[in-house]
Amino acid sequence: MADETTRGTASFISEMGVLKRVARTGWWFTGNKAPESVAEHSFRVGVIGSVLAMMEGVDSARVALLCLFHDSQETRVGDIPHIGRKYLRAAPNGEVTADQVANAHPAVREGVQGAVTSTRLAKLRRRSSPATRTSWSVWCGPSSTGNRVTASPRTGSTPASQH
């Protein structure tokens, strides 16, 4: 029989599978009726982040990990578009992640929480390492607002909340 941490880890892995069914809501503002899923977005961000990290000579595996888990909380709170964040108050990402991995293996708990904490620090521009700086550039780019808008590979349109 599996122990509590094995069941908790399996539960976390299963929950992450839900991300393939969570649509990114920012695309709806552009009229795209078939937006990418959060899982598709996270994969693409991971690829972009690791490639940029390779080009910058920093830890591409660390950057890919940060990118992979940056939206993992959306299994529980959904993908809140940037325009809606002014009006909605979700629990902090670190708190959601702590609940998600509460019963997981200690190494999984520490690794996932560390990735989310690093990601959130990057989003707050607390850039303490080259890997964090590179992951920051993946979803924020050079714009003054902190949002980089790129065309959808499916439609060529640009969403209001893409990051």
Automatic annotation (TrEMBL):
Domain of life: Bacteria
GO CC, any one term: cytoplasm
Domain (HD): residue spans on this chain: 17-83
Region Disordered, residue ranges: 134-163
Classification via Pfam families: HD_3
Keyword Oxidoreductase: no
Protein name: HD domain-containing protein
Protein's organism: Streptomyces alanosinicus
